[in-house]
Amino acid sequence: MSSKRVDPKATPTDLSFMRDLAKGTASHLGRPTQTPFGSDIIETATGKRLLRRLNSVAREYDATSHAEVRALRAATKKLKKLSLKGYTLYTTCEPCPMCMAAALWAGVDRVVFGATIDDAGRHCNQIYTYAKDLVKKSDLKCEVVGPVAQAECNAIFEDPRIQSAIRLWKTTSAKSGKTK
């Protein structure tokens, strides 16, 4: 499968890592943990993966349990330090404002994303503040690269199993008076 478009700042390594993340996230389709949102923390200099996390909002009943936030939390705990300088956050979808702010506060070198917020918005609710715009409004520095492997990441959203799950999320959220 080929990508729709690729950010010119993306490296061949970025494309490889993103395709691996998309494949790993898609491997959970049909399982109770299925989600279109997955994140990796990769050591920037060596390319060694520190960890991978998936979105767990519905499973944990926690609106902040996005894949990026879960990955950042787990990485700082694993490293026993607050700063993730020297690491890159890869994520199947452009980070929402909460996740991008968490990445900035954690001090990651880079954020590399697959699907855009606009892509995700075709399937589920979004806050249309783009990652690059949030960085511009911050004193904190972080390179944002994306989209990378956009078609591969969008394919996860378009999978019938995820479409079914999204319909269920929307129904459950509407019944509880919450929006997803």
Overview of this structure, please?
With 180 residues, the chain is of the alpha/beta class. The protein has helices spanning 12-26, 57-60, 67-79, 97-106, 117-121, 131-136, 150-158, 160-176, and strands at 38-43, 49-54, 87-93, 110-115, 143-145. Strands 2-1-3-4-5 form a five-stranded mixed β-sheet, sandwiched between helices. Helix 4 links the parallel strand 3 and strand 4 (110-115). The longest helix is centred in the last third of the chain and has 17 residues, at 160-176. The radius of gyration is 15 Å and the shape is globular. The mean pLDDT is 91.
Poorly predicted tracts of residues: none
Strand content: 15-25%
Which structural class do you get from the secondary structure elements?
A: alpha/beta
Please state the CA-atom Rg, rounded to the nearest Å.
Answer: 15 Å
Structure summary, number of beta strands: 5
Q: Mind describing the biggest β-sheet?
A: 5 strands, mixed
Q: What percentage of residues falls in helices of 4 or more residues? A: 40-55%
What integer is the average pLDDT?
Answer: 91
State the shape: globular
Number of helices: 8
Walk across the major sheet and give the strand order.
2-1-3-4-5
Distance between the termini: 29 Å
Q: Which properties best describe this structure?
A:
180 residues; alpha/beta; 16% strand; globular; single chain
SSE topology:
Layout: H1 12-26, E1 38-43, E2 49-54, H2 57-60, H3 67-79, E3 87-93, H4 97-106, E4 110-115, H5 117-121, H6 131-136, E5 143-145, H7 150-158, H8 160-176
Parallel strand pairs: 3-4, 4-5
Antiparallel strand pairs: 1-2, 1-3
